[in-house]
Design a protein that fits this description.
The complex is a heterodimer.
Chain A: E1 4-7, E2 10-14, E3 19-25, E4 32-38, E5 44-51, E6 56-59, E7 62-67, E8 72-77, E9 86-94, E10 97-100, E11 104-109
Parallel strand pairs in A: 2-11
Antiparallel strand pairs in A: 1-3, 3-8, 4-5, 4-9, 6-7, 7-8, 9-10, 9-11
Chain B: E1 3-7, E2 10-13, E3 19-26, E4 32-38, E5 44-52, E6 55-58, E7 65-70, E8 73-78, E9 87-94, E10 102-103, E11 107-111
Parallel strand pairs in B: 2-11
Antiparallel strand pairs in B: 1-3, 3-8, 4-5, 4-9, 5-6, 7-8, 9-10, 9-11
Classes of the chains: A mainly beta, B mainly beta.
């Protein structure tokens, strides 16, 4: 059974810091992995989708990497801003199913 | 382009009352449809998925049921709500045969 873990559960950093969010999964037989952002009381905003054949994806200040063999993905946020404050979720993608981690709650202090 | 709608956005219901949440997709045909729930302090969990009209697969045993009366309509129901049914419910769709899912805005349900 696939299990997805995100560490840390919560993170508070001063504005401008570079930071790394971690996602680990137990079964490397995945199709893809996707990172989302969730603002309080809101739905999901897709940030980056990494296909299983890829090692990383970049969008602006965000960079996500995927190492299937070790069951790990990281989301790197450069030069963090208060507007980045949200919960970040990773999801491993299998047949008919997204399996989500419990998220990292990020707060960027001005 | 494709759009997914969910309603209502927020719902407060007493324990024991019925529930009906609706999800519709526009701009595509024969989508796969999904219901997820995010309970307080827990991650998003897949509840049901459907690969066609009248075809529903349940992932976890629970107090809820799902139906797909039309190609692009997915309904989540309960005959009698429990306190533990409170949470944030997300509907999603994918192109048939593809894994990437697209999520709706969600419905926040509070059972009192």
């Amino acid at each position: 059974k696939q299990e997805v873990t995100q560490i840390p559960a919560a993170l508070s950093v001063p504005e401008g810091e570079n930071l790394v969010l971690n996602c680990s999964f137990t079964d490397s037989a995945i199709y893809n992995l996707q990172w989302f952002r969730q603002d309080p009381g809101k739905g999901l905003t897709s940030l980056l989708l990494i296909q299983s054949s890829q090692r990383e994806q970049t969008s602006g200040r965000l960079n996500a990497s995927l190492d299937k063999s070790s069951g790990r993905s990281t989301l790197y946020i450069a030069a963090s801003q208060p507007g980045d404050s949200a919960t970040y979720l990773c999801a491993v993608i299998g047949t008919y199913k997204y399996i989500f981690g419990t998220g990292t709650r990020l707060k960027v202090l001005a | 382009s494709q759009t997914i709608h969910q309603w209502p956005a927020t719902l407060v219901q007493p324990v024991g009352s019925p529930l009906s949440l609706e999800c519709t997709v526009e701009g595509t045909s024969n989508p796969n449809l999904y219901w997820y729930r995010q309970a307080a302090g827990r991650g998003l969990q897949l509840l049901f998925y459907s690969v066609g009209i009248g075809q529903i697969s349940s992932e976890v045993p629970q107090n809820l049921s799902a139906s797909r009366p039309q190609d692009r309509q997915f309904i989540l129901s309960s005959k009698k709500l429990l306190l533990s049914d409170s949470g944030f419910y997300l509907c999603a769709w994918s192109f048939m045969g593809q894994e990437t899912q697209y999520f709706g805005p969600g419905t926040r349900l509070l059972v009192l």
